[in-house]
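Incident log, support desk, overnight shift.

02:14 A customer reports that sequence design results differ from what the structure should imply. Their input is reproduced verbatim below. On-call engineer (initials T.W.) acknowledged and began investigating.
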């Protein structure tokens, strides 16, 4: 009788609370600290359909579709996270958009503070809180600042959570 050998060496499983989210800290100092939930987006490859007689045959697709990056953030009393993201969205709509190459001709972090998009880094932590993987979402910008729910009928204190949705070009796992 043949025996099989497991190649599984690591027996620790990924913990849902073992992560750290960061964006450009000089412009967004609060979102890193208050991020409560990050939903890693879907990656989809739609098959190519080729008609053949009375059916459609499916073949390997040629494009990848990236879902949206959803982040839930605790809202502080001063609503600093809300105003940071709101200001970012307003600047995208109201101001002339600088490309990253235009901003690089500026001076250091002052020029980086005016970019329309930033990379977001999600560090995956192990059981010892050491970063073991990093997911880098490239060229992110906010596309939705969700509802802020106020309710007088809440019995126990529940802190307000703000959903924020980002679009991006691609992501890499390092």
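02:41 Re-run completed on a clean worker. Output:
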């Amino acid at each position: 009788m043949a025996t099989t050998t497991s190649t599984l060496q690591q027996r620790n499983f990924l913990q849902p609370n073992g992560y750290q989210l960061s964006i450009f800290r000089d412009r967004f100092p609060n979102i890193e600290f208050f991020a409560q939930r990050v939903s890693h987006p879907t990656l989809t490859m739609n098959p190519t359909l080729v008609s053949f007689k009375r059916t459609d045959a499916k073949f390997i697709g040629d494009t990848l579709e990236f879902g949206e990056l959803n982040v839930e953030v605790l809202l502080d009393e001063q609503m600093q996270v809300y105003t940071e993201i709101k200001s970012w969205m307003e600047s995208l709509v109201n101001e002339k958009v600088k490309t990253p190459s235009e901003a690089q001709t500026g001076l250091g972090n002052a020029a980086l503070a005016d970019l329309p998009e930033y990379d977001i880094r999600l560090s995956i932590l192990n059981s010892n809180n050491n970063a073991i993987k990093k997911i880098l979402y490239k060229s992110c910008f906010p596309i939705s600042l969700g509802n802020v729910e106020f309710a007088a009928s809440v019995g126990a204190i529940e802190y307000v959570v703000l959903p924020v949705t980002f679009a991006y070009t691609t992501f890499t796992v390092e």
